[in-house]
Amino acid sequence: MLTIITAEDMEYELLGLDGSYAVKLRQYNYGCGSWQITGIPCCHAMAAISHSCGRDPVKDIVVAFVHQSLSKSTYIQTYRGMIHPIPNQKIWLEIEGSKLLPPHFETQHGRLKLQRKREPDEKSRGGRSGTVVCKNCGMAGHNKRTCKNEKQPIQNSSRTKNKKTNSTIGATTSQPPTRKSMKKTKELHRQQSRPNHNHN
């Protein structure tokens, strides 16, 4: 919601929620500065233009408040000149002179940087987050390589206990019979089933 206060010589004061600004239609000037930069009236300047027009249609008058460089006549005048055709590069005249070479590049020492330098107000790229825990002493803030504390005994976790119980269970259970053992049992059964022909 804007409140327009009319002054003389096409000057207006606009009162809004974000403050008050002065509009000078003859100088193409507005307090926020966007009209001067873009050359196109902003929404506040358009409110002053429509107020100055009264009952006349705004679309016929607003063109006069747009910068001359953005008009159709200026666009046509810019591209009015002729672009002459260019011959093939093979028949260009060779001019003697020093050849243009790229600047000398020196390889810096150390590992190559894979990330670019960021601006001071630019947010850092999100990566791994968390606290490093040492595997030697169990303290946070350093790793095993830089640890200066004594090595602490490692407590058996539930995973290692499960492995031990599984190994003992596997040892007590009987293994499945192989072909060789099955063949031996068959021969024993045959020998036991044969009649004994030895007489006293």
From TrEMBL:
SMART domains linked to this entry: ZnF_PMZ
Sequence segments annotated as region (Disordered): 106-200
Keywords: Metal-binding, Zinc, Zinc-finger
SUPFAM superfamilies: Retrovirus zinc finger-like domains
InterPro entries in the record: Znf_CCHC, Znf_CCHC_sf, Znf_PMZ, Znf_SWIM
CCHC-type domain residues: 134-149
PANTHER family for this protein: MUTATOR TRANSPOSASE MUDRA PROTEIN, POLYPROTEIN, PUTATIVE-RELATED
Protein name from the UniProt record: CCHC-type domain-containing protein
